[in-house]
Amino acid sequence: MTTTGTTRLSAVLNQNKTNQRKNLVTFITAGDPDVAMTIKLMHALVAAGVDVIELGVPFSDPMADGPVIQRASERAVANGVGLHDVLQMVNDFRATNTTTPVVLMGYANPIEHMGQDEFIRQSVASGVDGALVVDYPPEESIAFAHNAKAAGLNIIYLVAPTTTETRMQSTAHVASGFIYYVSLKGVTGAGNLDVEAVKTQVAKLREYSDLPINVGFGISDAASARAVAEVADGVVIGSKLITLVETALTEGTDAVQVVSDWIADVRAALDA
What we know:
The structure is a single chain. The longest helix has 17 residues, at 255-271. The mean pLDDT is 93. Helices cover 50% and strands 14% of the residues. Strands 1-2-3-4-5-6-7-8 form an 8-stranded parallel beta barrel, surrounded by 8 helices. The chain is an alpha/beta fold.
């Protein structure tokens, strides 16, 4: 069984468990539509009731992501935003928020370019609490996960509907912070959410890990968020938020306010 360490991320999630509060984790792509808006969105999400912020590190080939997050990544890359810029955004966010956990989500290439040890060092120095690297399989990132955890950086892994129980066990062995269960086959933003199937797989996962299990991919409204949260510890929402920002910018409305209002409704549904 995995155990939680005393990091900012585990402290918040443990507190939620004690208070019987469902975890609300939100994803936005760093630098989309620009750096200033990213930091405003981070603060607005927290004010609206978000517990953990996942910040996407822009990458030119985001293979696990659907078209919505791909477009966001493309816009951020076009803005010249890279890993160093993302770390600076977290550092800027930390100037006024020292309590909300921030998890970087992205791909191995930028980390390998920086160097794993340097990535861990700079992440911790910037106030990052965790990382989810889509293309670091648990079997091949044991040393990375160990070194990160020792430095106070939780490493989070994805578990999919197709993951075998043997793989669940190996993932649970190296994961820390929480486990991100992917609710459906396919890329981010896909549909066809089957809550009963999620319930079955989450129950299997709990046999191997006592980490919180947060469920993402396919959660697009307050009702689906609440339904999923009833069978898991919390939800992860990403593509919907980016779509809201895209639409607001197209229509000339206040994107930060639109996102804030929408997330406040989800928080209310989770707390109801």
